[in-house]
Write a structure and sequence with these properties.
alpha/beta, Dna Topoisomerase Vi A Subunit, Chain: A, domain 2, 2 domains, two-stranded antiparallel sheet
Amino acid sequence: MSSLKKLIHELSKLPGIGERTAMRLALFIVRQPSSYAQSMSEALIQVSQSFSFCQRCYHLTDQNPCSICSSVQRNAKIICVVEDSSDLLALEKSRSFKGLYHVLHGALSPIDGIGPEQLRINELIERLRLEGVEEIILATNTNVTGDATALYLSRLIHPFNIKVTRLASGLPVGGDIEYMDPLTLSKALELRVDY
């Protein structure tokens, strides 16, 4: 396999990048001075070696615990549960939430073989036992798997006598949190409802 075909193949593995876009990106990289490719490869190696999961919330981070979990300005009594780090970043962009997070790394999907054991649900339950949490905001996506995950978590959390809320209207059904604008996310957080 030629080096250009290999680059196209590797780029096409990125989410949202098809074969044609991968080819355009590869051709762009090839046309740049070699220092561009060198700088990009160094950045990729550095990020893959320095990033891991926060030991508390499981967000991707280059420090442990992450900057959100280690901030004394955050309200540790409220945890917002999200599916992925991209959802956490979208909510942070809204600048409306001042609590902590918990990243599940997916949603329940029995068809795809994703059950509670494949997600960070046990770690969330352990946090509830140890951290004196007063409210859990279920900020899973508003689709079949996100709703099923929220319902499952709600039933697990209720015996702890912790308030469980879900993001309010404002999020379209079938939409993904990471693609929502900051104002919509801000309103959804502000108008969350008991779940």
